[in-house]
Batch of 2 targets.
Target 1
Amino acid sequence: MDLLTLIGLIAAVSTIVIAIATSSGLESFVNVPGILIVVLGTMAVTLIKHRMSSVVSAFRMAFGEAFRDKTENPLTLILQIRDLADIVRKKGILGLEDYDTEHPFMKKSINLAVDGHSPEFVEEALTHELQQTLERYENAERVFRGIGESSPALGMIGTLVGLVQMLNQMDDPASIGPAMAIALLTTFYGVFLAQVIFLPMADKLQLKMQDEQRNMTLILTSMGNILEGQNPRVMQEMLSAYLSPENRSRLEAET
Amino acid sequence: MDLLTLIGLIAAVSTIVIAIATSSGLESFVNVPGILIVVLGTMAVTLIKHRMSSVVSAFRMAFGEAFRDKTENPLTLILQIRDLADIVRKKGILGLEDYDTEHPFMKKSINLAVDGHSPEFVEEALTHELQQTLERYENAERVFRGIGESSPALGMIGTLVGLVQMLNQMDDPASIGPAMAIALLTTFYGVFLAQVIFLPMADKLQLKMQDEQRNMTLILTSMGNILEGQNPRVMQEMLSAYLSPENRSRLEAET
Amino acid sequence: MDLLTLIGLIAAVSTIVIAIATSSGLESFVNVPGILIVVLGTMAVTLIKHRMSSVVSAFRMAFGEAFRDKTENPLTLILQIRDLADIVRKKGILGLEDYDTEHPFMKKSINLAVDGHSPEFVEEALTHELQQTLERYENAERVFRGIGESSPALGMIGTLVGLVQMLNQMDDPASIGPAMAIALLTTFYGVFLAQVIFLPMADKLQLKMQDEQRNMTLILTSMGNILEGQNPRVMQEMLSAYLSPENRSRLEAET
Amino acid sequence: MDLLTLIGLIAAVSTIVIAIATSSGLESFVNVPGILIVVLGTMAVTLIKHRMSSVVSAFRMAFGEAFRDKTENPLTLILQIRDLADIVRKKGILGLEDYDTEHPFMKKSINLAVDGHSPEFVEEALTHELQQTLERYENAERVFRGIGESSPALGMIGTLVGLVQMLNQMDDPASIGPAMAIALLTTFYGVFLAQVIFLPMADKLQLKMQDEQRNMTLILTSMGNILEGQNPRVMQEMLSAYLSPENRSRLEAET
Amino acid sequence: MDLLTLIGLIAAVSTIVIAIATSSGLESFVNVPGILIVVLGTMAVTLIKHRMSSVVSAFRMAFGEAFRDKTENPLTLILQIRDLADIVRKKGILGLEDYDTEHPFMKKSINLAVDGHSPEFVEEALTHELQQTLERYENAERVFRGIGESSPALGMIGTLVGLVQMLNQMDDPASIGPAMAIALLTTFYGVFLAQVIFLPMADKLQLKMQDEQRNMTLILTSMGNILEGQNPRVMQEMLSAYLSPENRSRLEAET
């Protein structure tokens, strides 16, 4: 998760909290039993749906990296790849040994190439690595989407419970309003958690997965080309197709 | 977005505004806090779901080009392609150098051909370009569809907030009606934004993407055929299959 | 659209009109502003979603051919194909020149064969033609399904508008009932248009598309076989698989 | 449809009828105009959606065979196939002529083999037959699913009609309850028809289709193997993979 | 189903039961006719949708193995496979005869290899076995998802029945509340069964299926490699891609 996701989350929660606070007190929107039904219930259902380890790794992926924006710009990658291709043409594959990069997947692919494995082996190993990464993202997305499907359901269950209780105790008409307000609160909690937090986060994770896939595919393909000794200029032309128009003109400016 | 989309947007908004204005005052449909919950909330959620740059480029794509209808008629393209094929047969590929066209993708493919790249290289570069364009459309469609899914959800959250507040203050029966009216307004805003503006725009973007894909595929395929020196007549027969019946007879009339 | 679709449409509309007319007056179900919101609103939204030409061609396809059932029975086609194969074996391909058929796609494929094009060319041209036809059906289906999705949404918007207006004017309790009745009418219009007219029509168009695809594929495949001079008996055996059991025994009876 | 489907249908309908009958009279749940709207309306809409012949054949497939469970156990088929393979190895393909089987698809494949057609021809003819059968099942499933989608929609239309009428005649408060009860009945009819009868039937038809597909594929594959003279033991080992664990041990016991 | 699923189930049910018990008596949430409509109705509908044997095997798969967590860690499997490869390189394939493993699929693949079948045959037999296992999981998932779709529908039917009865007997206003409470209970039962029990279980079964598929594919692929005499080190490198990063470093530590 990157910084903007965090800002979005804070903005979304603030918007609703401020809207509530300005037109009535916030305290009438806090109902502890209702919060427990929705939160504990969703947690329990999530435990049925997924493995504990999946849930932990999904939350770690989503929140643990909240302040880093790990997905690198394809432009940076392409410039690095051009450097790699230059080095290989000048010093041979072993020249890559001292090349320093921060992108873990590129580092891994350089190591594999330097170790003298065949291009086929390098490609197969990197493909497996790529699939592993995608699977971790898919798992995180699935966990978040699962929570986003369960929490409104548990909100609805809480509201049904509240309505049945209210309808059984209609002796005092004055209490109907507040009782129904409390019943509606669990639906509010469930929809809020799903639509403002978990479903949007699942969408963002899906997006990040596509970015990673594109970046890793870009590296995977170019490593193969480099090992086969392709011309760096041809490669750059080819790779520039991965860029948005602005980045492409920046790339051309740099050449 | 083309002119008709703009007319449709104006017509749709007017229909509803006029319907409201004729049967009651418009002012009872303006509720600033409700508008803020739906609009700011949806914006914040959109920031969680997408990258800022995606959102900006989606809106630029959708609104920035509102008065131009960029998607060219396949008939125009086919006539141009026939000209290109004629030129290549008469003067060779270099004869294309002076050919002038407004379609950026055709211009790019002519440049690549004139530069003396191999047909395989031209095809691969154009295919990458095609995928880039489709990705930009897909991104814009996804952003708009995402907004169209979030805004009714935030409308519903606003209505739940309003209902809970109303139910907690039912002392004065006379205020129940107006309070509930205000609660319902956020649902109205959310559904209106989604169903009248953002979801239809997402559909139109999907359509435009298909048009672009067809046009670009048409150019891509014929450039390959031209570089291999295929007969212009056979090509025209082939390409005419991309046309609707009316356009096809117009093409035959022109020959 | 065939005759039965028209009968179905009339029957569906009558059922509901009669049900209304027998239990109350029809006039209480006619609310001009409500009809305008749903009909004009849906039209405007449809203009945003699709190109004008797509909408026109979708309606022409659906209603213009209302009294003709163009989709031919595969049995008729197979008998014609057997005749064609016989003619080709006896008189050569040029013998087809005088063959008369009403099915436009078969006529086109005969013309192509008689013109002396290579089997590959004939197949490619017919495949393009087939795709064009399918695309026209898909377009019509998409337009109708799009209307069927928008009209209930506009009905709901109309109802929300009506409810807000009613809740703001609850001074006279006697007027609440009729006001809410009017508010509900737009939902009724929207659901009626979608579920009784447009969505079923979209389903029928999808079905017709599959029929056309099967018939055109049948012709396409057999033209190829005929041009390669395959045995008519073997072909008939093969083609009989396209038939339902009843039609198959009828085909065997005719042989 | 097999016997258990019929038992399920009877049990489902009885459960609800008994639940109604024990807590109130059944007569308050019979509303002839409501039944007509839902049943006639759904029939009319079904006529728009499908061809008459499709609807007839779907109902014949679903109800006409209600008391027969035609789908044979794969174990029976595998034992028969082993016999066939044995016969072919001992007496040649013509030895199959006297083999008697009840499964129509196996009978057809034996006939084709005995007639001396090439293995390719047999396979192609059987594949077409298989596709035809699957298409008939798909058609029936689609018809039933279509009814299951339309009947709640017509129930909702009926309820909207009833509510509008009720809201227009609210002079007598005592009549509101019964009027609204009648309005709700059409929703009840629609949901009941869809969720208790047509959608579950569509699911069962889908299941049967998969069974038929597996059985027919099993026969198709083994006929090919038999015609190529493969070893019966190897074939049995191969085919046993189609069986559930219990059936597999039974098969091994029989050998 | 593993232990955590059971804990999740108990936690989810307890959360809701405790929430009810603390705010009102549990007895007002027990309505025997309502429970019968939802439970018996769903059972009957499930009988229409599926075969009895499928339902039995789905429940046996889900509940019968509740206290065992059968899915093995891929790390354990890879270590075993390395041992197998070592043995084969030292003693030949027959050396596997004494190898003992608990994983039934690995045992089966060893047996097939030791029996002297060709690598192709082993692979084909194991592939069939793999498909059978996946089909059993798919069946169980489909049964549970089917129940999760039917139970809310039957809850809604029960609520409609209750509402119609209540609306017909509105003479005593004091009884409206409790009557409506009872009507709502069936919706509560249906949603509870679907969202807290059956749909989450279906999700877990889907997950288990993917785990089994990965493990069985891992065994299947490596058995092929072993039979072809591939280098154990190369295989381990290859297989390590199936592991999460932590497991991978553990694997490297063990080497």
Target 2
Amino acid sequence: MNRLHALTDGVYAIAMTLLVLELHVPDARSSSELLTALAALGPNLFAFALGFAVLGTYWVGSAVNLSHLGRVDRAALFLNVLQLFFISLLPFTTAIIGRYPDEAAAVVLYGVHLEALGLAQYAHWVYVLRNPHLAHSPIDPRTARAVTTRILFAPTVWAVAIVLAPFSPRLGYAVYYVVLIGYVVTAVRDRTVLR
Amino acid sequence: MNRLHALTDGVYAIAMTLLVLELHVPDARSSSELLTALAALGPNLFAFALGFAVLGTYWVGSAVNLSHLGRVDRAALFLNVLQLFFISLLPFTTAIIGRYPDEAAAVVLYGVHLEALGLAQYAHWVYVLRNPHLAHSPIDPRTARAVTTRILFAPTVWAVAIVLAPFSPRLGYAVYYVVLIGYVVTAVRDRTVLR
Amino acid sequence: MNRLHALTDGVYAIAMTLLVLELHVPDARSSSELLTALAALGPNLFAFALGFAVLGTYWVGSAVNLSHLGRVDRAALFLNVLQLFFISLLPFTTAIIGRYPDEAAAVVLYGVHLEALGLAQYAHWVYVLRNPHLAHSPIDPRTARAVTTRILFAPTVWAVAIVLAPFSPRLGYAVYYVVLIGYVVTAVRDRTVLR
Amino acid sequence: MNRLHALTDGVYAIAMTLLVLELHVPDARSSSELLTALAALGPNLFAFALGFAVLGTYWVGSAVNLSHLGRVDRAALFLNVLQLFFISLLPFTTAIIGRYPDEAAAVVLYGVHLEALGLAQYAHWVYVLRNPHLAHSPIDPRTARAVTTRILFAPTVWAVAIVLAPFSPRLGYAVYYVVLIGYVVTAVRDRTVLR
């Protein structure tokens, strides 16, 4: 269990920090040129912030969900490694939207990636629900439904973003941000104390 | 003990995440060019997935094996560092098969690398078996045999892949994937609960 | 809780270590050329040391502050992720002052970054103070005031550095280093034993 | 305490894994060219192995020494961060000897770096000895002397390597390896069980 947490936290921490490698120091000959060049990094900073928000939100979600888990078997470990696969790929798709912020293909690819991540998280959760002997303490149906809703909410809305992005990449981004801000607002208002 | 776990999980997490650095954002001028360029990244994505699967499988194996260990001495730490040496080299050989997917030399090199990794894991396990005072609780002969078989199975088959690769690199890849899928299937069917 | 620590320590450890990627091996044809080229890396080494000192100081501060926290809710997790956002950006702004050590804009940008980091740390601390049920044990007013002073001291002085840097970048650096050295001296003289 | 371990293990794990980034995939048009190109990477692989051996040896040493520590104060944390500073710089000096294996300046620089690392480790240990209230359990004089000898042995011999390297870089490398192999052999023969 502890090792699953350690690997998970490690991959999240590294993916979060690798995002910064896509921010290249610009060429400039004066302070004013430097400021102009930094302003031109806008799309990259935007992608960095988006990627970080996605990772931060999924990490908080993962920390909350895994807190229900008291024991693991090897299948649960592999389902977790599957999630980490999509987490470790995120710096790549984030770099793509940083470089091609206005291309619909980039925004759709990002949405498909988030979709895969959300479904992997859902698969892990379903496995926990179907193997109650792995749970720390019995998960009551109300909590189970609440967590399921929280996990499935994002992939549902990512699907909307994927459909909208070919018409307007910016609308796609707007959807991504609305979901993430929604999670943060819900999280901040939910004062449940975690162990 | 905890520190051995922390270092091990850290190196695995970083090696997994560094694999993504070999996926370079392609140059493109439109959404369709971007899609074509991403499709051309196929071999790299293939190598990324293979590398991730190897690391994930060995990590699960290492988590299961180390769970038998209750105490360490300095020799056990060094045997573990030896494994981590081969783990931390993996992004390099993975990058090589990503760049030269059809060269037999790349596939053979990868196999030799996996062979070294498997033998280092075996050396560690033999050390644990020979120093039963390090074990968490006595390891019964049946478990010992099962773990030994599981550890030696992969290196045996890697040897087959190394022999086959010069004739057909693709056959070599097929062998790698069959082994990894075999591990996942076995793992999923084995419902032993881990601490 | 443990996972919050693990993610935090992971991001700090990676940000610390990523700083080294800005130190590029110079081109040289002889030992004396190599020494000259290494000497020319002075500003980069200076930025590396500054970035490391900032991360080290904030990490020690974070370890001390989080030791008051016994429980978390999701808002506390997000406030922590916000701090990690600014931590993971630090290799970027550190690289900028390594490349443009004499540009006022670089020094000001660094100061603004440190300001944001300090305020995020302050927001987290205020949240802990306002939610005493999250504290490990009641925080007495004197400790609360001491921690608040320690957290707010740096952002106050960073503001001075931001004002001074346009007149003299070196004066800005001097302020950064004085603050960091001040923290180390205070820390070394304060013999409070931490759990 | 746990956080000190986590940060330490994180920095070691990342430094170990970042070493691999200096191994660049070579350009080649056939399997035989690839093998030739890989053989030409010899010095880099040699530096990689040396860097990994140094990090592995210091990590085992650090794990053993820190196991005496039961409590920390802020000065002990800063002394540890100082060690991590030199650890996180190691990928840089390792890359330099990988690129300039035959330049005396590179070998001397590496020795000076190891010297600084060893002295930082010694400073930490002296601090622990002078503040016995930080120790897990009283450190008896015999253990204290043994650890002191083990810590000071390496820096003494690094000094010899620094003096010899200008005459023969290879002699310098030989000294580095002899010390590391000496540590491994001693470690393997010392069967003390660690907690």
